[in-house]
Design goal:
The protein is of the alpha+beta class and 422 residues long. Helices cover 37% and strands 22% of the residues. The structure holds histidyl-adenosine monophosphate.
């Protein structure tokens, strides 16, 4: 019996790990630069958290959640996104009492039952950042500039930042009304999804992938902003300019989750095709209250790791190999104790060492050393050891020399250091 992966999931391994490590390192690096601390929430949460948090009328809740009843009859879901769980944890652990602002980041798998295609999986991974407590556009500018710095840290260049403001609960009703009036005249031209959303989620008609021309000509949210929202948006744009962050404005950017207000943003990459959003986020000033906490304004974003990797590959970003074998230790005859000692000594110095555990012939051992790309091989042989020497072979040049066994590890360490940074 053979088993296969569940559709829309992948095994992450091999050379690809170099991209994963690069992305994780860049995430941790910028988190440290801006003072964000990590939070690891459970992968499984109450279904209601997402119904309330993400919104009952969203595609995520309507069609895409992995929801089931556990053996205790509780309705649970695999998390489709990270923000609602972080907010849940924020409230549950009384972080509210610890003063503001608070800055959190996370990395991990998310689950959405979508139709798999390039850049779209059912289990995918996000790195996300959330900033709690500030209503100021300085917070918006911080997370957007952090995101841009993180993408550059990953080696990416060919992306663009797109922003929009969808207003607040004060000004959005008049905008929605204008949209309804506009779309009332176009209802027979729009797709079936949009016909349904006309009553449930009118903003989403704007990012329909089918009726683009109709959406392009639709009223713009930025023309309906109240004075506070207008000022907020203008200040954000000013700060982004000060930070030398290029951006485009797109009135059709509304995002697929219900919790946003005011600033929404996305980063799109030119190498990706249909699913070109490598990151998305926005302000969610009402979500903490919606989920039972006090009023705490917040803003954040998440980037999709698999899409970041596609983007890096399309730009030809080179990443370090996941493992560099510095030294291979071959041994022949009754010398295994010395071989073990040498291996341990080298590992204590911080080198990556592979010692033959297959007890194969020397020829087979050297073949293996080549296959794993070892930089040096130390050959420990009976005859040599009787003379207190071992053989050190440079795998790149093929050069071999006998060295005094007592100085072998120091010499090997120095030779590796000449080749690469350890
Ligand atoms: P989102 O736009 O739904 O936002 O997802 C963020 C990113 O996750 C997307 O830009 C994309 O790169 C990636 N992504 C989403 N779905 C898939 C999929 N099926 N396969 C591969 N990658 C995918 C959120 O999740 C919000 N929680 C972001 C946020 C944080 N807003 C405020 N704070």
């Amino acid at each position: 019996m053979k088993y296969s992966r569940i559709k829309g999931t992948v095994d992450i391994m091999g050379e690809d790990l170099g991209y994963w490590y690069t992305i994780e390192n860049a995430t941790r690096k910028v988190a440290k630069l801006y003072g964000y601390s990590e939070i690891r929430t459970p992968i499984i949460e109450p279904t209601e958290l997402f119904v309330r948090g993400v919104g009952n009328e969203t595609d995520i809740v309507q069609k895409e959640m992995y929801s089931f009843q556990d053996k205790g009859g509780r309705n649970v879901s695999l998390r489709p996104e990270g923000t609602a769980p972080v907010v849940r944890a924020f409230i549950e652990n009384s972080l509210v009492n610890k003063g503001f602002p608070q800055r959190l980041f996370y990395m991990g798998p998310m689950f959405r039952y979508e139709r798999p295609q390039k850049g779209r999986q059912r289990q995918f991974h996000q790195v996300g950042f959330e900033l709690f407590g500030s209503e100021s556009p300085l917070a918006d500018a911080e997370v957007i500039s952090l995101l841009v710095r993180m993408l550059r840290e990953m080696g990416l260049m060919n992306f663009k930042v797109v922003i929009n403001s969808i207003g607040c609960e004060k000004c959005r009703p008049s905008y929605k009304k204008a949209l309804k009036e506009y779309y009332a005249d176009h209802l027979d031209e729009v797709c079936d999804d949009c016909k349904r959303r006309y009553n449930t989620n009118i903003l989403r008609l704007l990012d329909c992938k089918v009726d683009i021309e109709i959406a392009k000509a639709a009223p713009k949210s930025t023309d309906y902003l109240c004075d506070e929202c207008k000022d907020h948006y203008n200040r954000l744009k000013r700060y982004l300019k000060v930070l030398s962050i290029e951006f485009e404005e797109d009135h059709r950017l509304v995002r697929g989750l219900d919790y946003y207000n005011r600033t929404v943003f996305e980063v799109r990459h030119e190498g990706l095709g249909g699913q070109d959003a490598i990151a998305g986020g926005g302000r969610y000033d009402g979500l903490i209250e919606e989920l039972g906490g006090p009023h705490v304004p917040a803003i954040g974003f998440a980037a999709g790791v698999e899409r970041l990797i596609l983007a890096m590959k399309s730009e030809g970003v080179e990443v370090p190999p996941p493992i560099v074998h510095h030294v291979y230790i071959a041994h022949i005859g009754d010398v295994v104790e010395k071989a073990l000692e040498i291996a341990e000594d080298l590992r204590r110095k911080g080198l990556t060492v592979d010692l033959d555990v297959m007890e194969r012939s020397l020829r087979a051992q050297l073949k293996h050393a080549n296959r794993i790309g070892a930089l040096l091989t130390v050959i420990v042989g009976e005859n040599e050891l009787e003379r207190d020497v071992v053989v050190v072979r440079d795998m790149e040049t093929g050069e071999q020399s006998e060295v005094d066994v007592d100085f072998a590890t120091d010499l090997v360490f120095d030779k590796i250091r000449e080749k690469i940074q350890v």
